[in-house]
Amino acid sequence: MGFSANFEVVKHVLSFSGWHRSDFLSVERNAFSRYIIIPILRDLRKIVIAIDGPAASGKSTTARLVAEHLGYLHIDTGAMYRAVTLRVLEEAIPLEDIGAIGALAEKTRIHLERAETGNRVFIDERDVTREIRTEAVTRNVSLVSSYQRVRDVLVREQRRMAGTGGVVLEGRDIGTVVLPNADLKIFMIAGVAQRVERRKKELAINGIDIESEKLEREILERDRLDTTRKASPLRRAAGAVEVDTSSLTIDQQVQFVVGMAKEIIGE
Ligand code: CDP
């Protein structure tokens, strides 16, 4: 068996023992014919931060501001699931047609761009930042994102975007599935009343007025679907720090995460 074949075998074995493929550059044999692992030299100031949590728990605002503080990239993975859902609705694909939805996810080119007001979301060249927040998308996104094939496509893309660090990813499965080796994992929660209140304000800024009772039903239903689905359910990841933002100000929750990140970076 040639060296490259051996390398593939060793990489395969390593990935089963908790190593992520992007953690090592190569596996070589030393003078004593033992395999040694050559890790990728990462910039130690550029760590990977994973923020997970239920709907409207404060993830997006926190992730965006933490990224700004550290000069990192902010990746809102929920926006990516919303973008696929928007395309499913536009193409009028039946929501139970898993095959067609998976194929659509594969050919949908989503990209996120940093702007003054946070990320802008594009499908191909089209700016869909506002459209992905409509009620119709919100109502259907949990079902579309419960399909394994959709997740496989987006998770592959998210890992590629995370590169070798300097990123804050937020979603439902970042610490459990996408990047289980993240340097800092946060599980963000908040009481239902606070979450409803925050979402109501957020929507009002965009000129949308929804009754609190309706919002609460929508948030609780999405929580139920996201925590009970088979594929990558929302869970607190092993090693994640739980942050209850119910009585924290935005500034407090941002400072908390930035403080933990700086401790890890050694600043
Ligand atoms: O911002 P909000 O809390 O409303 O949710 P979001 O982050 O925009 O995510 C919308 C939906 O996408 C969630 O309710 C999940 O169903 C799904 N999602 C997911 O399955 N996995 C992720 N990593 C992120 C979002």
Approximately how much helix is present in the residues? 40-55%
Overall, the morphology is: globular
The description of the largest β-sheet is:
5 strands, parallel
Distance between the termini: 47 Å
Query: Any ligands, ions or cofactors bound here, and which?
Result: cytidine-5'-diphosphate
* Topology pattern, helix = H, strand = E: HEEEHEHHEEEHHEHEHHEH
Query: Numbering strands along the chain, what is their spatial order in the largest sheet?
Result: 4-8-3-9-10
Uncertain residue segments? none
Radius of gyration: 20 Å
* Overall number of structural domains: 2
Strand segment count: 10
Q: Which fold name corresponds to the CATH topology of the largest domain?
A: Rossmann fold
CATH class of the largest domain: Alpha Beta
DSSP helical segment count: 10
Description of the structure:
With 267 residues, the chain is of the alpha/beta class. The chain folds into 2 domains: 3-39, no CATH class; 48-265, Rossmann fold (3-Layer(aba) Sandwich). The chain has helices at 3-16, 59-70, 77-90, 98-107, 135-144, 148-162, 174-178, 192-205, 212-228, 250-265, and strands at 24-29, 35-39, 48-52, 73-76, 110-115, 118-123, 126-127, 167-171, 184-189, 241-244. The protein has a 5-stranded parallel beta sheet, sandwiched between helices. Helix 4 packs parallel to helix 6. The longest helix has 17 residues, at 212-228. It is globular. The mean pLDDT is 89. The structure holds cytidine-5'-diphosphate.
